[in-house]
Amino acid sequence: MSESSPTTGQGFSLRRGIEKVIDFTEPAVVGLIHLCGWSAIIFVMAIFFFVFKESLPAITGLEEGAVHGEVEQLDLVEFTTSPKWIPESAKKPTFGILALMVGTLSVTILSMVIAVPLGLGAAVYVSEFAKGKPREILKVLIELLAAIPSVVWGFIGLVVLNPMLVDMTGEPVGLNILNAGIVLALMSVPIIVSVSEDALRAVPDSFREAGIALGANRWEMVYKVLFPAAKNGLLAAVLLGIGRGIGETMAVLMCTGHSVMMPTSIFDPVRTLTATIAAELGEAVRGDMHYHTLFLIGVVLFVFAFIINLTADLIVKGIKVQGNE
Amino acid sequence: MSTDSKNMNTTTENGLPTILPDLSAHQTEGDVDRLRLIENGQVIPAVIHEDINDEDIILEINKLNLWYGNAQALYDITFEVPRGKVTSLIGPSGCGKSTMLRCVNRINDLIDSVRIEGDMIIDGDSIFAPGVDVIELRKRMGMVFQKPNPFPMSIYENVVYPLRIDGVRDRAELDEVCERSLRGAALWDEVKDRLRESGLSLSGGQQQRLCIARAIASDPEMLLLDEPCSALDPVATAKIEELIQNLSGDYSILIVTHNMQQASRLSDYTAFMYLGNLIEFGPTYKIFSKPETKETEDYVTGRFG
User: N- to C-terminal Cα distance for chain A?
Assistant: First the structure.
């Protein structure tokens, strides 16, 4: 008895030591996790701040000592309504992004017209109809499709799709809205498929059984039970696709033809907001109007992204309110 | 001997209960121990009470065998379901009663590994014959599941769903069916002012009655109820049971239940199943008061199961 008590005492103090270490590591880990969480927010805010700060002189007027061109202060009406983007003109530089916005929107809309039915159809097939091996292979292939770098897509548009479109449409050049729309659609499809497949698989089997038991065939079950049940997820999939379309740079830079004009048909070349920034930022003189205006285009892209997210939120909330009433 | 041990293995892989209380103590002399025989993989003929011969039959089940992959789940099930009455399927978990029910509207077809032999005849029409229009077949019966599963749409749209898939657009007809079905499911008074609200906004018991309303909307011949009260509280259960009794007569009801009191309260006929075999089938009062087999008696008095 007398021998065992000091041993117990020692064991006790050792345990106390370990507890002290644990006491110290616990808050450290918690702190680290907090830091990780906050850093994401801080980085996003920092990007916001930087882009806004760099775009501000375009609106308020250039700073003293900056490289002055002809334009001292940007005319916001001209900026948003003029289709003329001639930033480097020696005589009269014009900063109108209407054509660029129309370019971005037309390419995005066309790509969604192609990608949404294709993506939803593929998602329905993978989640409801395909079985066993083919299903697994398809899923792997779709994930692989998502991993292709955008410059490779741009290359395909340039080298493969371009001559095909020339042959088929008889246009002199195949780099246009249609080309970029197709390439962008193929790029968005994997995102739309994987997100909407998740949404469909998340619908409980009890809904499928109920639908089937009521005498629905599989398509009716998909269309009238699964789609309504998964609508939030499907909407999220489509909006992610649109986000990808608006934000994509390299592929559209290579496939649109990159010429500033108001398109009248899908066979016209256009230029997008993102491609303009990518192509010109390296050339622009730091601090002059061209440079700041490119950042203002970045702000416009922010606004686009914000509007899409807000719309998504409102639609999802709208669906919820309608569902509860 | 080798076949026996093989069957034993199959039973164990199935996840079916392998440990049972020793029933030999209850065995009267000259009686066979059916449970033991079944566990050893033998198929024994069920005891069918004569009373069914006086009934009008809606569904004949004829030597039905079913396999999930290599594991057999139903063995030579043969009995008849009377028209306009409530028939309950009882038995311990894994005895195949739900599987049996899900054969009637062929919803087991959704599972790839299922293989079926034998047949069922509903009102003279074969259910498993090749070339049967499964969609039309399923429209002849309504099914209610264990957990209430209203669709994420309005109460109204839930009820008229079977008509919607038939392409009915006539507002007056839809309204009429909606009201009739909800009245039939004893839900009309509770929801008539909020038909546009989501079916998911209802309480569990109301949701289950909504599912019953949906199941009777297309005026089916049979109702298949798969433990419809197992996810509900006692008050909601009492309402559903009352509803089932009101519906019998108009509909032939086949109900799977874990709750033996429920079976004895509700049903006119009862089938007792064990490990994929039908043990005994007869009028409920006989099954519960003077069953012909020792095994049924042991089960309904709670000695095992």
Answer: 74
